[in-house]
């Protein structure tokens, strides 16, 4: 009988039940069935979260509590709605601007973790450099439409470190295509060390730069990170 149970469970894709049904203890049929279903649902949700986490490709960060002291939050949004990702539901963007080591990448990562756990959001984290490399690569291999489609299916796109390297013409144009595609469709969180006035140095062309900024700042919140570098602070503590 056991192998039949397992075969049916397999066919119904009840993977937790298939492996563990015999471990459940219960006083009635209903209780047994309820416990089985509960465990199967729980297991599926965990697997879904793990899949979303691995697809998001987050960088490694610390696990200390996030400190907000030196972060200026504009009107229209607050700490809670930044962290809990409600801006994603509204398809709004966040621009995290400030110096190195002030927590931009850390905050972006925490936002992604919450969005996955709370809403099951599909997210992908890229540094601008890695996204642009991938775009150029797929363009050369003829797989750009496929790659664009993958981005289109996301709920949230994180673009980390805009400004560290200037882009070539092709890269700038492809990045603009991605930002345009996301416009009013999904959220972007972008971290940068450059004020808008300097974005020209990244995109290389004033008209393109203006078009990028225009799309990004519409429906967006600018958070300014003005503290000292945590990397510096932590190294002072350690040495
Ligand atoms: N506001 C903050 N609150 C708590 N930890 C922080 C904060 N800012 C930075 N850190 C710590 O310093 C590390 C580096 O910060 P990071 O987010 O990479 O800076 P940035 O992306 O702005 O250069 C983080 O992984 C975290 O451990
Ligand atoms: Mg960073």
State the gist of this model.
The chain is α/β, with parallel strands linked by helices.
What does this structure look like?
With 239 residues, the chain is an alpha/beta fold. The chain folds into two domains: 2-56; 71-238, P-loop containing nucleotide triphosphate hydrolases (Rossmann fold, 3-Layer(aba) Sandwich). Helices cover 55% and strands 13% of the residues. It has helices at residues 2-11, 15-20, 29-56, 79-83, 86-89, 104-119, 128-141, 144-152, 169-182, 200-203, 206-217, 230-238; strands at residues 71-72, 93-98, 123-127, 156-162, 187-192, 220-225. The protein has a six-stranded mixed sheet. α9 (169-182) links the parallel β4 (156-162) and β5 (187-192). α3 runs antiparallel to α6 (104-119), α7 crosses α9 and α9 (169-182) packs parallel to α11. Adenosine-5'-diphosphate (ADP) binds at residues 61-62, 64, 66-67, 100-106, 191, 230-231.
How would you describe this structure in keywords?
alpha/beta; Rossmann fold; binds adenosine-5'-diphosphate; 6 strands; 239 residues; 2 domains; six-stranded mixed sheet; binds magnesium ion; elongated
Topology:
Blueprint lengths: L1 H10 L3 H6 L8 H28 L14 E2 L6 H5 L2 H4 L3 E6 L5 H16 L3 E5 H14 L2 H9 L3 E7 L6 H14 L4 E6 L7 H4 L2 H12 L2 E6 L4 H9 L1
Parallel strand pairs: 2-5, 2-6, 3-4, 4-5
Antiparallel strand pairs: 1-6
Helix pairs in contact: 3-6, 7-9, 9-11
Adenosine-5'-diphosphate (ADP) binds next to helix 6 and helix 12.
User: Which molecules are bound in this entry?
Assistant: adenosine-5'-diphosphate, magnesium ion
Annotation field: number of helices: 12
Distance between the termini: 65 Å
The biggest beta sheet reads: 6 strands, mixed
Poorly predicted sequence stretches spanning 5 or more consecutive residues: none
* Rg estimate, integer Å: 22 Å
Order of helices and strands: HHHEHHEHEHHEHEHHEH
Overall pLDDT metric: 94
- Assign the CATH superfamily of the largest domain: P-loop containing nucleotide triphosphate hydrolases
Strand content: 5-15%
CATH architecture of the largest domain: 3-Layer(aba) Sandwich
CATH topology of the largest domain: Rossmann fold
